[in-house]
Specification:
homodimer, 9 helices, mainly alpha, BetI_C (chains A, B), elongated
């Protein structure tokens, strides 16, 4: 969709925090009225852009080829949330601009709360449905998977890797963020592929 | 300092993204000239506020009472970065506003990169200096500590817990974020207090 592409381009080039409806219309090659059909305020624009980013990410996850095992599947899924190419970097910038505004906009906060609650529940179900792993030797310190808590950990870790790689790519290059995620998943699911 | 308190109050109440120098001066009870001595543009204001937040956080960490052991010390330190009271929540909001702008401002990006690089190095040194833990039974899946990589993981995890708890406090209440951090540290340093 033209409007979403225009928003992502603007987010990538100079950020969404000072953009106007007029400018989005011009970048998308549509009328101001057409843009206002979808949003008329800055908050509505951020909410629209964020929903489009979520939809696009979900579409990419659905299109993933089957992986070797559950750990590889989880890794491939979560990589869709990291800024590993120009498209995902632009999406991450939209997410950051949206989330920063959510701290002072109740409407955006409700969307962000609902989105993270849904992703947490999906991760919890994924972790709960994993084929049972070999029991760790008692007292070995082997992590025992706890689906609800581990889903929170994993969600925070991916959001944090995204946050650090987008806001400080010298300190955490995106490729290093992906390797760091792999290290975490190898420890969490040591018997799995 | 009056100016910092005014910025933190505005960040907490309505965010820093639409605030003017005039408004900050009025909230701090000082002249516009006094404010402009510290910053005259929005980016300079965010950089100033972020530096103050970093300094305040470091001062709190330095003032921490000695904890039972290295894991408790690390937990107490990292909790200073989570939104566990009104003051830390306001600081986190400043951090988010700053970081979101850093994605499109090279000046802010340089500060954010330098800050995360420094924190990563401090965490790496802390992890490298831990008294050696009992060796895990071979093949037990016990995580073997890798200071540089584990410092990246830990930094991303804390940033992610902060991000989720500030932007989606219904999905991740701040107290749950702190418990999630504890769970992670117990697994990472199982033999420690």
């Amino acid at each position: 969709m033209e409007l979403t592409d225009a928003l992502l381009r603007i987010a990538a080039d100079r950020g969404l925090d000072r953009v106007s409806v007029r400018e989005v219309a011009s970048a998308a090659g549509v009328s101001i009225g057409a843009v206002q059909y979808y949003f008329s305020t800055k908050d509505e624009m951020l909410a629209f852009a964020f929903r489009q980013v979520v939809d696009r990410t979900r579409a990419r996850v659905s299109a993933l080829k089957p992986a070797a095992g559950p750990r590889q599947t989880l890794a491939a899924t979560l990589r869709q949330l990291l800024p590993l190419d120009a498209r995902r970097l632009a999406e991450c910038r939209v997410y950051l601009a949206f989330a920063a505004r959510a701290t002072t906009s109740p409407t955006l906060a409700a969307i962000q709360n609902a989105t993270l609650t849904t992703i947490h529940e999906e991760l919890r179900q994924t972790l709960a449905s994993l084929p049972s792993l070999p029991s760790p030797p008692s007292g070995s310190g082997h992590p025992v998977l706890h689906p609800a808590r581990d889903a929170r950990l994993l969600l925070a870790l991916v959001d944090g890797l995204m946050f650090d790689a987008v806001t400080a790519p010298t300190a955490l290059p995106p490729a290093t963020a992906a390797k760091t995620l792999d290290l975490y998943l190898e420890r969490l699911l040591p018997g799995s592929d």
